[in-house]
Write a structure and sequence with these properties.
With about 280 residues, the chain is of the alpha/beta class. About 35% of the residues lie in helices and about 20% in strands. The protein is built from eleven helices and 13 strands. Strands 10-9-8-13-11-12 form a six-stranded mixed sheet, sandwiched between helices. Strands 2-1-6-7 form a four-stranded parallel sheet, sandwiched between helices. A three-stranded antiparallel sheet has the order 4-3-5, with helices on one face. The longest helix has 15 residues. It is globular. The relative contact order is 0.16.
Length: about 280
C-alpha cells in the first residue's frame, strides 16, 4: 500500500487527513516567545487574534524530523511504501532535510512539489486515483502533474512575504506602490515565489487573475482550489467575477493554514488549478 505524508504547508487540515488518506507533519510556528505546532495546539481563530490583534510577526521552522522518521518507519514496518510531499524546496528546507534522510531507501520517495497549499492538495488527489499502482508509476504521475500546477494570488501587502524571506527585495519594491495590487505566483518549474503582474486597484487585480485562468485554461479533470487568509470577502468577489464555465469546478474554500498565512498575511486570496493539457499536433 502507498502511504502519503505531507507537511502542514499543504493546508490540509487535521480533520481532513482520513478523508484524503494522508498523515500531516505540522510545521512549527514561533509567536513571540511561544512555539506552536501548526494546526495542533493553536486554532486559526487563536492564531489571528495574536497575528492581527497583538500585531505579532510569526516565524516558521521545519517540522520535527524525528517525528517524520518515526511515522515513515512505522509504515515501512507494515510493508507499505511512502510518498512524501513537502512544500516547495524554495520556500522551506523540509524537502532537502527529508530527501537526505531517505534518499537511499527505494520504498520512500520524497518529491519536490514546487508548490504549496492547494497545489499539494491536488497532488494528493492525483495519488488517490492510483493507490493500487506501483510507487514508480505514482511518482511519475505526480512529477508529470507538478509543472502544470498554477498558483496565483493577491496579498493585501507584500510585507509578510518579504520579511519572511519568501520574496526578494526587488520584487517587494516593485509591487509595493500605492494602490498597486501585486499578483504573486508559485512558479511550477522553479518553485520560487514570483511577482508576475501588477494592477491598479483590487478589482483590476481580480480581473487579471480571471483573465490568466481563461488564457492558461483549466483541466476539468481537477478542481480549482479557491484559497484565502482570514476574510472570505475577496475570494467571494473573485468567484463572482469568474466565468460561469469555471464555477462548476470550484472546490471547497481553503482558509490557509497558519504556517502559510504567516507569510501571506491576512486578506490574501487567489486560485490554484491545473492548466489545460496541451494537445499534441
Amino acid at each position: 500500500m502507498i502511504r502519503v505524508l505531507v507537511d502542514s504547508g499543504s493546508s490540509i487540515k487535521q480533520e481532513e487527513k482520513e478523508k484524503l488518506g494522508v498523515e500531516i507533519l505540522p510545521l512549527k510556528i514561533l509567536m513571540g516567545e511561544t512555539e506552536y505546532l501548526d494546526g495542533v495546539n493553536l486554532s486559526l481563530d487563536e492564531f489571528y487574534k495574536k497575528f492581527i490583534g497583538e500585531k505579532l510577526f510569526p516565524k516558521t521552522s521545519l517540522p520535527s524530523l524525528e517525528t517524520a522518521q518515526n511515522v515513515i518507519k512505522k509504515f515501512l514496518e507494515m510493508g507499505d511504501e511512502v510518498i512524501v510531499l513537502p512544500i516547495s524546496s524554495k520556500i522551506s528546507g523540509t524537502y532537502n532535510a527529508l530527501r537526505m534522510l531517505f534518499q537511499d531507501n527505494p520504498h520512500v520517495r520524497v518529491i519536490d512539489t514546487k508548490s504549496a497549499v492547494g497545489g499539494i492538495r491536488i497532488l494528493v488527489q492525483e495519488i488517490n486515483r492510483y493507490r493500487d499502482k506501483s510507487i514508480d508509476f505514482v511518482e511519475k504521475k505526480v512529477n508529470e502533474l507538478i509543472p502544470r500546477l498554477k498558483v496565483i494570488a493577491i496579498p493585501e501587502t507584500l510585507e509578510y512575504l518579504y520579511r519572511g524571506g519568501r520574496l526578494n527585495k526587488a520584487a517587494y519594491l516593485a509591487g509595493n506602490l500605492m494602490n498597486i495590487k501585486p499578483l504573486i505566483s508559485l512558479d511550477s518549474i522553479s518553485g520560487e515565489v514570483k511577482l508576475v503582474g501588477k494592477a491598479r486597484g483590487i478589482k483590476k487585480a481580480m480581473k487579471e487573475i480571471v483573465e490568466r485562468l481563461r488564457k492558461i485554461g483549466h483541466d476539468s479533470n481537477y478542481q480549482i482550489v479557491p484559497s484565502y487568509t482570514y476574510n472570505k470577502e475577496n475570494i467571494d468577489a473573485l468567484i463572482e467575477m469568474t466565468d460561469d464555465e469555471f464555477k462548476p469546478y470550484m472546490g471547497d474554500y481553503d482558509n490557509l493554514d497558519m504556517a502559510l498565512a504567516c507569510h501571506w498575511g491576512p486578506n490574501a486570496f487567489g486560485y490554484i488549478w491545473v492548466e489545460e493539457q496541451k494537445k499534441e499536433l
